[in-house]
Design goal:
The structure is a single chain. By secondary structure, the protein is an alpha+beta fold. The chain has four helices and nine strands, in the order ααααβββββββββ. The model is unreliable at 1-7 (pLDDT under 50). The two termini are 131 Å apart. The protein has three domains: 14-75; 77-156; 158-278, Immunoglobulins (Immunoglobulin-like, Sandwich), CATH 2.60.40. The chain has a five-stranded mixed beta sheet with strand order 3-9-8-5-6, with no helix packed on it. The chain has a four-stranded antiparallel beta sheet with strand order 2-1-4-7, with no helix packed on it. Strand 1 (159-165) and strand 2 (170-171) form a beta hairpin.
């Protein structure tokens, strides 16, 4: 296209060239005719002009025909136009196929990325479930060990199963025997008068390894025990005149096993009772 433009810039159109030649010839003819008319030679000059114009017109006409034929020969044929159109369509189809292939690769890559992400999330979820399961197993194992230890301790050490006094007050739960008994209300009448005597009795169960249980009754009023270690599970106590509004009685039990359940290695189980003092 650039070559055609350059060629057209240096080329004068045939029609314009013919007009220029005719104008020059007419101008010259008019001037010459005027001179010859004055000299009486106008007729012979006109004949020469007609002959010259005819000779000039013939090559110009031939040149016009040649240029026209050249233009016609340069125009593409229908076959060439169809071939160019087919090539253009093929290029467009190839371009579309390339874009489709690119979109397909991107879609497949996105699917692989999503699948990898879902797999990682599922693996993380499974790891979290496994961690929770291991924690639950550990908790169950700890609870089992605690229960097993309690069973073993209960097999080694005695437990208090109940306390009752002469006023009808009773209690089932002890320091190491956390039970409740619905038929035994807790201290229905826990008020005692100064000088009043009560009788206390404690029941306990023995371990498999020993049938000997010893009892000790202690009051927080006296420094000395109400009754020291013995096989008797009962004791009597007279309420002294104390400057307190209440006092407590503690009963300790143990067996003949060399070790003790308590931290200070003194007893295996205990029960504490509080009484209110009435002057």
């Amino acid at each position: 296209m650039n070559q055609k433009i350059k060629t057209q810039k240096g080329f004068i159109q045939i029609s314009l060239l013919v007009e220029i030649i005719i104008a020059v010839v007419i101008t010259s003819a008019v001037g010459t005719g005027v001179v010859l008319h004055r000299q009486g030679k106008l007729d012979s000059f006109l004949a020469n002009i007609s002959q010259t114009f005819t000779k000039t017109e013939e090559p110009i006409t031939a040149q016009i025909k040649e240029v026209g034929q050249e233009k016609v020969s340069k125009q593409p044929s229908i076959e060439e136009l169809l071939m160019d159109s087919q090539l253009e369509q093929e290029r467009e189809v190839e371009k579309i196929n390339q874009e489709a292939e690119k979109a397909k690769r991107l879609l497949e890559e996105q699917k692989r990325h999503q699948a990898t992400q879902r797999l990682a999330e599922e693996r993380q979820r499974q790891q979290e479930l496994e961690r929770q399961r291991q924690l639950e197993i550990q908790l169950l194992a700890d609870e089992f060990e605690i229960a097993k230890s309690k069973v073993e301790q209960n097999e080694l050490f005695p437990l208090i199963t109940g306390y009752i006094d002469s006023k009808g007050n009773c209690r089932c739960s002890s320091g190491y025997n956390k039970v409740s008994c619905s038929g035994c209300p807790y201290f229905a009448e826990s008020k005692l008068r100064v000088g009043e005597t009560i009788r206390m009795e404690v029941s306990a169960i023995s371990s498999k390894n020993s049938s000997v249980i010893e009892y000790k009754f202690v009051s927080n009023v006296k420094q000395k025990p109400i009754k020291n270690w013995s096989n008797e599970n009962f004791a009597e106590y007279t309420v002294p005149n104390i400057p307190y509004s209440s006092f407590g009685i503690t009963v300790l039990v143990r067996n003949d096993y060399p070790q003790r359940r308590s931290v200070n290695n003194i007893y295996d189980d205990y029960i504490q009772i509080m009484y209110e003092v009435i002057p």
